[in-house]
User: What shape does this take?
Amino acid sequence: MRTQEVETVSNKSDLVLVTLAALAAIAGVVAFALLSEQALAVRLGALAGGFVVAIGLAWLSPSGKRFLAYGQQSYEELRRVVWPTRKETLNTTGLVMAFVVIMAFFLFFCDLIIEWGLYDVLLRITL
Assistant: This one.
């Protein structure tokens, strides 16, 4: 397992591109809200346009490229995961449900014992 250090934004152009991408996304949302009198297709076009511009700007930035590389590495790691079979999943789920039922009964009986101790024993002594 590789460990990577956290990288901060050190390049001014990276900061500018990420800021412009965030502003473009916000502009798309604001345009969608302000164009409430227009047809839905126009509003959705403004929203989608803002997001497309934002994604394009973010993709061009070094941070966006690192994020894309991270996404690709995550996908490759996900492909290596050995998923349980249906039988294993059902067996594990059954064990968990049985444990939940056993714990529910245990806590119920603990509650009954505490209630009996407080109300029947302790309160009868003080009266």
